[in-house]
Amino acid sequence: MLKSITTKQAPQPIGPYSQAIKYGKMVFVSGQIPIEINSNNIKGDIEHQTTITLKHIKTIIEHSGLKIKDIIKTTIFLTDINQLETVNKVYKNFFIINETTTFPARSCVQVSSLPNNAKIEIEVIAMNN
Questions:
Q1: Which of 50, 40, 36, 52 is nearest to 78 (CA)?
Q2: Tens digit of each residue's pLDDT (9 = 90 or more) over 8-20
Q3: CATH number at residue 77
Q4: Among 3, 30, 34, 75, which residue's Cβ finds the most Cβ atoms within 10 Å?
Q5: pTM passes above 0.90
């Protein structure tokens, strides 16, 4: 059975889609961009935008009843692939739980543009073991 996951602690969809869908033990989180909840704006450099985007993902995942460690696949969309090193630093710190952390599978692609002139968008798939 499909269940829509929605929380006001993450940006509301800007189109006809759900923040996330839970299907059995799996959660599919729609692409998140770094919209600031209080101002509804996007600001800052790629490090700040990556941090905000991952914060939204954490909020949605936890609202679905899962944890960061349950994320098994991520897809990152960047408007400038040359910023990947900075993204990787923030991303690594987000996922490190302990010295035996297993990182999710990942794809990363450069795109020409993203909604609201964001520099990054990230989508994830998580699964409850």
A1: 50
A2: 999 999 899 999 9
A3: 3.30.1330.40
A4: 34
A5: yes
